[in-house]
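Side project, low priority. Logging it here so it doesn't get lost.
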Amino acid sequence: MSSDSSQYRDSISFAEVSKRFCALSPLWTILAAVFAMQNPSFIGSTISLSVMQSALGILMLSMGLSITPSDILRAIQKPYIILLNILLCFGMMPMLSTFIASLLHLTPDHMIGLTLLGCVSGGQASNLFALLAGGDVALSVACTLSTTLLGIVAIPILVERMLSTVVVVDSIEVLQSVAQLVLGPLLLGLIIGTIKPSLTEKLQSLFPVVGVLATLVLVSGGASSCTNIISSGTNILLASYLLPLLGGFMAWIVSFLKPSMAESSRRTLVVETLSKSPTLAYVLSQKHFAEASAAIPAASMVSLAIIGAAVSTFWQALDPIETYPVCRI
């Protein structure tokens, strides 16, 4: 057998391992969360805020490397889906959060936390979930960035209307965070992919693995910092799971209003809708409300990662859309 054939067979083997590892991401997420909650001191001393920020940057870099400028241009040419995602994010999800709060008879503080979670912009982990689900990663990036930037204006208005409370969001600080943690790594990945397309093509099967590992770091850090808060009630956990599950289901139904929508775009819309930014909701609750209001955003740091990974990988397993090209290193 030739050397090229042997290398090709080995590369296929690595790509298959990559697929299987990513397919088990819900299990890795649960294990990481459980371990972090049982060992909060160890995780807290190991995974600092700077480490979590680096993990988010690595996640965004891997997403940037997995797409091309032409992908972004193609995604922007789907304004219908981007607009629909904005309406679901800042329209349906806030209303759904108040419905769940009423359904579960949450305390006023916990209701505030769930409402904040419903009002914030999309979370960056949605880009990884779109990749795992066989969705359109470039479209996912466009949707996440649009809600993140619009959230500077939308979040304070929604919170004031729904909670009769004025929440000040530092626009400059938010933009700086978006640029440093999201836009910067994404653009770097796009530039590298443009300059060295052959290199990124060879490494395609690595990007999902890197994304999953970075997400596990974020989940571990979040779980270790909110162990005591999460243990304060079962309704808190239930609410943190119901919002993304019902939101994703409603988005899936809404997507059929346009029968011609591509399956990859449909999956992207679903994961973008169910994936909120619990970190932002947590910071706002800690800054502007009672400590108990942070319970549901804290719990959602774990539940959203579990649900997003589970929905994406199970969806891809049931109805595969090829997303991990064979790595020919």
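Brief comment: Confidence is low (pLDDT under 50) at residues 324-329.
Revisit when time allows.
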